[in-house]
Specification:
The protein is an alpha/beta fold. The protein contains 28 helices and 31 strands. α25 links the parallel β28 (about 750-755) and β29. The longest helix has 28 residues, at about 840-865.
Length: about 850
């Protein structure tokens, strides 16, 4: 097979991806093989590929390709999430550009626009994943609002409501004024904000003087219904029960006392605004105080706010401060840093708001399903890295009820139906609702009842994903596929959605299937730039993944990312890592091209070639065994580094150099066959990481498809031959001597080894790689070096500059004496020896012994020269 002189990924990537699709290699149906299943974390239907997607999906593809080659029926289910808030915002913006306001059209009209937008833009990210090489079963692509998945969500809501796990109640919730919807606690991201603290005067009504109240939110003063002090604060105990006037509003409010108050904060006096603070709300309930909501749903001042009605809350704050100053009611203001909740989706500052919403009773749920916590803590579900187990436990042990309703139109509409008198029932559709009302002795017609306008939290559909994608939920569920593919094997996701998604999928698994949804969770790190900043468009530090693929090729990008991506740790991205991936591709390509330049003749392999083959097989066996362990521990980055070194250092730099024929000479067919066999094994080992170049070269060597070949396993290739490390160390040392003495690589050197026995298995290989003749004897003249623990003398046909040699040896002795002293000090420390890992202590002792031996050789050499 003729290959281009240079590796050009553009020439092969589309070709092989099309080939894999045409042959149905990604598709899975239940059979008699063991299943290996991954469900993709469904990206938002609004999304486009970013670096985080690139890393996450590369890891999934590595796992799925390796499983496919290891004899499993591998099934990777792709799909997208409807993303209620993000998608609705996109559609609202699109309509506004056309002069259409959401409030001016019906729900049905809006949803038609939303579905049109989804059909036009919703599949972009999945198409982009194909450029990465993702081997998803595209025939199984799912969408969280497609009919069967929509029905599954409604079925689950009704089921949980009937079990008493879902209820409707009035509480203080998180309100997103930009999205105009409620948020769960997990959707609120707290950020440090530099603000102002305003000290405002509340004039006394039935006492002379005033109270000074420190607040960061003067725009909510109109909602004040009391001021509160600590009952033991002696500054104010005489005022408890008296009244003050609300600044600018002049409403009289009472001074109350509650132990919640922090005496040290501000002046120790709190303005109580139950509509706009959760703690104020709790105080208000204890004192039966009224609630005055001064904000509209969009964050503007409401009629109840009295002043600056219709102004945005930020603008209203400035106007309040200006008027307080003009009225001499602002004593002072000072810098104030505090944490402020922001919407995870829109980044708007979240407002506490009292609202009637739908909730899931999480404490009752956890009492019913204790395995949700115990399965993770007992490692039935394993987290990688395991340190996230404690975060998971803390959240589970402090879980709060889940606010599952959202004030949007795009999503799964809540199946609750309201009669004119305010009563409601939960039912699948109108006809079922009318029957339910009849059971409550309420007679209504279809025109009289209205469905709840709200939709369910997006995560309320996503938590069902591992079950729902196999159509395992609902009245018409077909369990054939679910019983085969569920529970899934591994989940790859980010720690930022540990609570949003991972924990809730565990909940759904135990509630609806009575078992875990997956066996392993691999948490990727966050990709940051070299300055450790989070990648973002605003900073301009986030490269377009598709641009990187076009520039370097998918394999280079995949490898560059994975080499520096240990589970759970942040990745400091540098484009040089992708360049390293490209260089590796070129190295592999050129290595194969080298093998194609040989003239093959049918004769036996030489001793050097036979030794090189045996040596590399042993190295190969070691890496296969080691990587099996690393994969079991999800140390994919370490396994890739092993393969990188095996190919670059062992295969290219040693093995090929050892087996290649001398210039102008033919190549042994026996040796060439071994080279091709070993090359194909390396391509199979690398295929999950670098699928395109490995498919091209594997196909060139074997004539078969690498993607469905058998993944190399440990088979104890060599049991008798062992190769001393000193062999290749000697090659390196000879090359160092050549460089230091200015000797040509073509000049054959004579090397004398005191103990030749340990090099017998690779004598001819060493002689070829180092261009030396090895002699099994001691020779007093020449350069004496220590290779490991093996004394060696290199005979030189040139006069040695004794003074220079003595100077160099003294430098080496000085360094080794310092090194010996530091290691010895460490080993003399009883605390280190008793507390350190025994392997670490043993390595330090070995270092000490090696230093002693090297010093002995150098001192002996110095004595000879002197």
């Amino acid at each position: 097979m003729e290959l281009s002189s240079k590796y050009n990924p553009c020439e092969i990537e589309d070709k092989w991806y099309k080939h894999w699709l045409e042959n149905g290699y990604f598709h899975s149906t239940p059979n008699d093989k063991p299943a290996y299943t991954i469900v993709i974390p469904p990206p938002n239907v609004t999304g486009v590929l970013h670096m985080g997607h690139m890393l996450n999906n590369t890891i999934q593809d590595v796992l799925i390709r390796r499983a496919r080659m290891s004899g499993y029926n591998a099934c990777w289910v792709p799909g997208t999430d409807h993303a209620s808030i993000a998608t609705e915002a996109k559609v609202v913006k699109l309509l506004a550009s056309q002069g259409i306001q959401k409030k001016d059209i019906t729900r049905e009209e809006f949803l038609k626009h939303a579905w049109d937008w989804k059909e036009k833009y919703g599949g972009i990210i999945l198409e982009q994943l194909k450029k990465l090489g993702a081997s998803c079963d595209w025939n199984r692509t799912r969408f969280t609002m497609e009919p069967s998945l929509y029905d599954a969500v409604i079925h689950v809501f009704i089921d949980l409501y009937n079990k008493g796990l879902i209820y409707r109640g009035t509480k203080m919730v998180n309100w997103d004024p930009a999205g105009k919807t409620t948020l769960s606690d997990e959707e609120v991201i707290f950020k440090e904000v530099h603000d102002q603290l305003y000290y405002v005067k509340y004039k006394g009504v039935d006492f002379d003087g005033e109270l000074i109240v420190a607040t960061a939110r003067p725009e909510t003063i109109a909602g004040d219904v009391a001021v509160c002090v600590h009952p033991e604060d002696l500054r104010y105990t005489h005022l408890i029960g008296k009244k003050v006037r609300v600044p600018l509003i002049n409403r009289e409010i009472e001074i109350i006392a509650d132990e919640y108050i922090d005496i040290e904060f501000g002046t120790g006096v709190l303005k109580v605004t139950p509509a706009h603070d959760i703690n104020d709300y709790e105080i208000g309930k204890r004192f039966n105080l009224p609630v005055i909501d001064t904000l509209n749903d969009d964050g503007t001042i409401s009629v109840a706010g009295q002043l600056f009605i219709g102004k945005d809350r930020a603008e209203a704050r400035k106007l309040w401060v200006k008027n307080l100053k003009e009225s001499e009611l602002l004593e002072k203001q000072e810098n104030y840093t505090h944490n402020v909740g922001h919407s995870e989706r829109t980044d708007a500052v979240v407002e506490p708001k009292i609202s009637t919403q739908w909730f899931m009773d999480m404490k009752k749920f956890m009492e019913k399903n204790p395995e949700v916590l115990s399965s993770v803590m007992s490692d039935e579900i394993q987290f990688h890295p395991a340190k996230l187990k404690n975060t998971y436990r803390h959240w589970m042990e402090n879980i709060k009820d889940w606010n599952i309703s959202r004030q949007l139109w795009w999503g799964h509409q809540i199946p609750a139906w309201y009669a004119p008198n305010g009563d409601f029932v939960v039912a699948k559709n109108k006809s079922e609702a009318i029957k339910a009302f009849a059971n409550k002795n309420i007679a209504v017609s279809e025109t009289e009842i209205q469905q709840d306008p709200d939709v369910l939290d997006t995560w309320f559909s996503s938590w069902l994903w591992p079950i729902a994608v196999f159509d395992g939920i609902g009245e018409n569920a077909d369990r054939t596929e679910l019983d085969y593919y569920y529970p899934t094997n591994d989940l790859v996701t980010g720690p930022d959605i540990l609570f949003f998604w991972v924990a809730r999928m565990v909940m759904a698994g135990y509630e609806f299937e009575g078992k875990l949804p997956f066996k392993n969770v691999y948490f990727t790190g966050l990709i940051r730039d070299k300055q450790r900043r989070k990648m973002s468009k605003s900073l301009g530090n986030s490269p377009d993944p598709l641009d990187l693929i076009e520039k370097y090729g998918a394999d280079s990008v995949r490898m560059g990312l994975l080499l520096c991506a240990p589970a759970g740790n942040d990745i400091l991205f540098d484009e040089s890592q992708i360049e390293q991936g490209r260089n590796f591709c070129n190295k592999i390509w050129n290595a194969y091209r080298l093998t194609q330049t040989w003239e093959i003749q049918d004769f036996a392999a030489s001793a050097a070639q036979t030794q090189a083959i045996a040596w590399f097989k042993l190295r190969l066996e070691h890496v296969i065994t080691e990587n099996e362990r690393l994969f079991s521990e999800f140390r994919l980055s370490d396994a890739l580094m092993n393969l990188y070194k095996l190919v670059w250092d062992d295969f290219c730099s040693v093995f090929l150099e050892g087996v290649k024929p001398n210039y102008g000479s033919p190549m042994s067919k026996e040796a060439a066959d071994e080279v091709n066999s070993l090359f194909s094994i390396l391509m199979a080992m690398l295929h999950p990481y670098m699928p395109f170049i490995t498919e091209e070269l594997f196909h060139a060597i074997v004539g078969k498809d690498c993607i469905i070949s058998d993944y190399p396993k440990s088979v104890s290739i060599i049991t008798s031959n062992q190769f001393a490390e000193e062999g290749l160390m000697l090659v390196t040392e000879v090359r160092n001597v050549r460089n230091s003495k200015g000797l040509s690589p073509k000049e054959t050197l004579e090397v004398w080894v005191a103990n030749m026995d340990i090099l017998t298995n690779m004598k001819e290989l060493i002689q070829k790689l180092a261009n030396v003749n090895l002699h099994a004897a001691e020779k007093p003249n020449g350069i004496e070096i220590l290779v490991g623990k093996l004394p060696v003398v290199i005979e030189l046909n040139q006069e040695i500059n004794v003074a220079e040699e003595i100077e160099l040896i003294n430098k080496d002795i000085s360094y080794l004496e310092g090194f010996y002293k530091s290691v010895n000090a460490k080993l003399s420390n009883e605390k280190f020896v008793s507390n350190a890992n025994p392997d670490v202590v043993e390595r330090e002792r070995q270092k000490l012994e090696d230093a002693e031996q090297k010093l002995s050789v150098l001192r002996n050499r110095l004595k000879q020269l002197s």
